[in-house]
Amino acid sequence: MIPKLHYISQGASPKEHLENIQKACSSGAELVQLNIHNISEKKYLKFANEAREITSHFQTRLILKDHYKIAKQVKADGVHLENTDFCATTALEHLYTWQIIGGTANTLQDCESLISKKVDYITLSPFRVSSNEDNESKVLGVNGFSLIVDALKTETPIIGAGSITTDDVTGILETGISGVAVSEEITRNFDSIKLFNKLLSASSIDEQRHTF
Prior knowledge:
Elements: E1 5-8, H1 14-26, E2 31-34, H2 41-58, E3 61-65, H3 68-73, E4 78-81, H4 88-94, E5 100-105, H5 108-116, E6 121-124, H6 141-152, E7 158-161, H7 169-173, E8 179-182, H8 184-188, H9 192-202, H10 204-211
Parallel strand pairs: 1-2, 1-8, 2-3, 3-4, 4-5, 5-6, 6-7, 7-8
């Protein structure tokens, strides 16, 4: 099972990323993604190990972005491939069988490509434009999410991302999206994790009813 809420770490420095991961874990996050950029592989390994220690303490899942070899080394729970230079098939060969792989998509074709490579989940993005990133990808919104999910008809969990707030969750879930990946809203207020979890778990009641 892929958790319905993913916290994408934020911070002005690697140390701040780790502090925010700790806050997210202690506030009830089930999965966090280490999102540190522009540091050497040696330093990344150090911070990935520290993130693994924090998340293990809270029994929270840890996903590393793109660094699949380090994900294996630190025994992270998986890897998220945002960089299209990395192929999920190649990453799969490097990982333990229990580690999960996710990938970022913006179009129906992106999703189909990732599904053919046997990813465990897809992050569909962006829901809306982020103030912090140069976004060249097409903004999808509720309509874009709905069109892609309807066309896919897949059992692979689709996670919505891109400046999502608690106000957006109900509308996003109605499109058939499985969950959300959030960075800014949670970093601003870690207590929002409880509300995100409440909104997301409300969606699973009907699904559970049908499985009996």
